[in-house]
Design a protein that fits this description.
Layout (H helix, E strand, L loop, with lengths): L4 E2 L20 E4 L1 E2 L2 E2 L11 E4 L8 E3 L11 H4 L4 E9 L2 E8 L2 E6 L1 H8 L6 E6 L18 E2 L1 H10 L3 E4 L14 H7 L10 E4 L10 E9 L6 E10 L2
Parallel strand pairs: 7-10, 9-11, 10-12, 12-13
Antiparallel strand pairs: 1-15, 2-5, 3-4, 6-13, 6-15, 7-14, 8-9, 14-15
Helix pairs in contact: 2-3, 3-4
Amino acid sequence: MSKPLDISIPLQASQQNPLAWYQNEPNIEPVRMGDWIGKVSEGGSVNFNNVFFNPHAHGTHTECLGHISKEFHSVNDALKEFFFLAEVISVVPTASPLSERAGGEDEIISQESISKALKGNTPEAIIIRTLPNSTSKKSKHWSNSNWPYLDEKAAVFLRELGIKHLLIDLPSVDREQDEGKLLAHKAFWDYPKNPRHDCTITEMIYVPEAIKDGSYLLNLQMAAFHNDASPSKPVLYKIL
């Protein structure tokens, strides 16, 4: 427990912050009230910042089915346990034969690639690292990049395995432009047929190369936001 493996991306008010969904970088600035400023280096008594950001667009975040439902559901209500047996897998997205785009085909994460990487394991949580795994993911501006996405059949497969917590190093498990279909989100949460209220999706993580594929203990830490999503800090621990 003294050797945590942090797979979150920290939030910073900088162009080095990862961005998605056509948003600008987050803003962190000191409060100003008359002559008083919340910044010690500029004469204030304390550092006292306002933070403006979007959980889905600005870094590692965990979301519940409230992200896609007409009804309001809070991720703070969905996630009541925080330690899970997890499997880290690495997969190479493959060309989708169904959806062509300018310059080539979409890339998908298939059921076959996930099944092969899991090697028969059925963990409570799965951490998907896509290859290649450049460190640029930690600061990538994803908008208009048509990132790889999870095939609907793969999401169904994960649900049927009983996996409750899905973590991935992309801005979304779904296609960037999908006409609002959200096939992977809906398949994983089984929405609206049989909603899985206690299951979560965590996006925009980064799994360093030093973390090998295999079994870990996952501590899924999250800020207590009454919202469909919250910034989060997933941390892995080796199982000896």
